[in-house]
Design goal:
Blueprint lengths: L1 H26 L7 H4 L4 H36 L7 H21 L3 H29 L6 H32 L7
Helix pairs in contact: 5-6
Amino acid sequence: MWRGVIVAYIIVAICYFGVSILGYWAFGNAVADNILISLEHPTWLIAAANMMVVVHVIGSYQIYAMPVFDMLESFLVKTLHLPPGLLLRIITRSLYVAFTCFVGITLPFFGDLLGFFGGFAFAPTTYFLPCIIWLCIYKPRPFGLSWIINWICIILGVILMFVSSIGGLRQIIVDASNYKFYQ
């Protein structure tokens, strides 16, 4: 399993770094949040890439929204005493998806919000919380190699969390200053 995780992270890193480096090389800092918007041709490649994004988002949305679905359905069954079943699930999940689509359409700076909230959620869970947990569980010798590497990751993760959140907030302010609803 560990080898599989390492291979998966390497593949993801190659894909992300490839897109970010080549995107910056081709477009500079004028690239859009969605790099596919900046592309003009070949149209078949853009269409295929957009289709892959749709497949990815449909799958990941279901995974990340599952706790929300469970919480909503539990609230409706336990508090409002609605009967559990397929009809309740279809209605609850459809309304939730419609609400999130409305929010995504209403806020065109949604990518900036992702950067802002991603700084609070992604950086801790990826960079420094695992290191803190590892230090608490294994208790390595202070100032040993493992201890130093983990503390470097913790410090860099905290810095990344603050910098990305500040950058996301700045971008929200810049985009919101000239924003008009539904135009």
